[in-house]
Amino acid sequence: MKALTANRLDDGEVVFWNRGAWVERFADAELFANDASGEAAEGAGKSQPNTVIDVYLIDLIESEGLWAPLSFRERIRALGPLNHPTHGKQAEGGAAIEALRHAAGASRSTGRVNLIKRK
């Protein structure tokens, strides 16, 4: 599974693609079962150059019955600042946040690696 992520230009917020719009919560992100549909969404996301920057797909793993980013970097981006449990997106709590916190894996997202190679 994959999800599409980027950073919003006006405030730098990490956002995720959900059926034609950018959302702030990973739990609300649209999940893609194959590369073809993910790449189609990536193209659609890149068509909004005045809204977001650095659009790329991230790899996901199953964690506690929900999906979470495979790479540690992407889990941090999805949780928000980790300096204190009451800051950022992690302060909301809930099953989706717990799945992000307990997910394992330290691999780089293939989408991020491809983005780095293009630069």
From TrEMBL:
Entries under InterPro entries matching the protein: DUF2849
Domain of life according to the entry: Bacteria
Pfam families the UniProt entry points to: DUF2849
Protein name: DUF2849 domain-containing protein
